[in-house]
């Protein structure tokens, strides 16, 4: 598709129907990475992705041009934009020109082309598809997938802890440290830290609200999970696990098949997330009004391995805001009590 670089930003209006009996609806048609992307013009939510090499024209020589994503596919797209039609035709001509001519080397050339296409399909298209899906996922879709992952995790840990007083504190803590739409779930297990799920949902273990844990240390782990998520998108990791086929279903149908995440919860809990960069993490501490030293000392009481978090503590010479009252902290500590 290198010959189509001039069309990388090409967009046009069109009309699309998902099935022969469905009504035509207005869409925006744009060139993606070896795909045609059909999106809702109001929400910009992708409705369907078509492989450019597979697109066929249903009414050659007539306008508006009608296309389908394949010979037996029920979807149909109407386009009357001259530049868009020319671009699609150029794809078809490029494919035709790449076909080997008849001759003694035909079989060898066909095998070579098939190998090249297979290599492209295996090593380039699936990862690009997954990255694209993670990049364009709207907040509601991320929240839905985050909830599915939490359900998978609860199969291993048991249901998230819940008591009325503790739930109120969970909400207060999430709003203070992460944002108004955030959620913190406390699981009845030991997690040795926090994990950020898409959503944003952050999970912590019972070990961060009991024993010698303090609000400052718990807050530090929660903020660390946010910094890790900034460097490594949790949705991208989940979609890589789900695979290209499930991701394509997400792009075209708007939801991820639940079975595609089977076992992902156990996998997520079995790996400790990599520590974030000190500079990134300190920015989260500063914005949340939390001292970084208690968290750093909890990781390494000697301070040697976390010297950067101690010396650059944004509240080393100032008083940080109180995270929770004693009463709120006590309520959170009792959230897993039966």
Give a verbal description of the structure.
The protein has about 350 residues and is an alpha+beta fold. It has two domains: about 1-125, Pleckstrin-homology domain (PH domain)/Phosphotyrosine-binding domain (PTB) (PH-domain like), CATH 2.30.29; about 140-335, no CATH class. It has 13 helices and ten strands. It has helices at about 80-100, 105-125, 125-135, 140-155, 165-175, 215-230, 235-240, 245-255, 265-270, 280-290, 295-300, 305-310, 325-335; strands at about 10-15, 25-30, 35-40, 45-50, 55, 65-70, 75-80, 185, 195, 200-205. Strands 4-3-2-1-7-6-5 form a seven-stranded antiparallel beta sheet. It has a three-stranded mixed beta sheet with strand order 8-10-9. A hairpin with a 7-residue loop joins strand 5 and strand 6 (about 65-70). The radius of gyration is 26 Å and the shape is elongated. About 35% of the residues are buried. The model is unreliable at about 120-125 (pLDDT under 50).
